[in-house]
Amino acid sequence: METTAPFSQMKDQILISPQQLLAHWQGHRGLTRGLIEVYPDEHFFSYTLGGMRPCSALIDEVLQMADQSMQGVVSGDWPSFSEGEEPQATTKEQVLAQWDRVTEKINAYWSQIPHSRFQEVDKAFGLYEGPIYWFLLYLIDNEIHHRGQAYVYLRTLGVEPPAFWDRPQL
Amino acid sequence: METTAPFSQMKDQILISPQQLLAHWQGHRGLTRGLIEVYPDEHFFSYTLGGMRPCSALIDEVLQMADQSMQGVVSGDWPSFSEGEEPQATTKEQVLAQWDRVTEKINAYWSQIPHSRFQEVDKAFGLYEGPIYWFLLYLIDNEIHHRGQAYVYLRTLGVEPPAFWDRPQL
């Protein structure tokens, strides 16, 4: 069995391909970007419910985790988490610019992930131990989880969030 | 290439195995079950924020979609959605009993899914068109999305939700 077997030959054997998982993730990231866009500027950094963090902090967590994970996902060389590469955004425009930079970064790193890597057990950031597929799903799930919370914030602000099934590819 | 190649031989070729996706889903379902358990009885069917549905309705949607999907996922024979098999639950205990029944149903059907099925394009319930892997991820993502919303409900009720990373296998 060759590692270079084309997708058409593998199709009966696989559940999801790397390219399909990337499209799945980027579709979710497109939806989250749409939520940031419709979120009222005056509430993005401050509005909260139930003692939770404001939308800006939920989004920053999601953004930083993706940003800082890609090198480790590809190579196993993990930086310490929370050494952000750039200053904390203070406007929605800055957040969207960071979002778009990370979109490109994910695409650029994704093609470098060796196929055998997805089943390798690693310790992300020296903390989270499991196969790489499991860690990538955690990143995606964590984004869905926090975005779902931001949907409630938006609804209580009287703003209609984007449709959950709308997954624009950026 | 044999369709019966053992997992160890396929490991470098796959991103995630059917058994791993099942464990991923059931781990999320275990977390959602934990959320239902800690949700105050007196608020489960009534408390809302922002004009949204109460927790009971969010959970019922997630539960019904899983329940009614498995036959179609396995065979391509889809029932019409919303023909619930049993009366709407009116107590949390009934919801938990339904949840546990669906947990067993998913496990029972999962082992019957032909491996080639995950990449087949189908139209779930005659409505949602895409590969079966995509539809299964939609079910999982929709659960994470609505559970995230229920986390906010709980926080505003002063109740600590279960930890997001806690994924008990039922």
Automatic annotation (TrEMBL), chains A, B:
Keyword Metal-binding appears in the UniProt entry: yes
Query: What keywords are annotated for this sequence in UniProt?
Result: Metal-binding
Signal peptide annotation: none
Q: Which Pfam families match?
A: DinB (PF05163)
Q: Does the keyword Cell inner membrane apply?
A: no
Q: What InterPro entries does its record include?
A: DinB (IPR007837), DinB/YfiT-like (IPR034660)
Family that this chain belongs to: Belongs to the DinB family.
Protein name as annotated: DinB family protein
Say which species the protein is native to.
Spirosoma liriopis
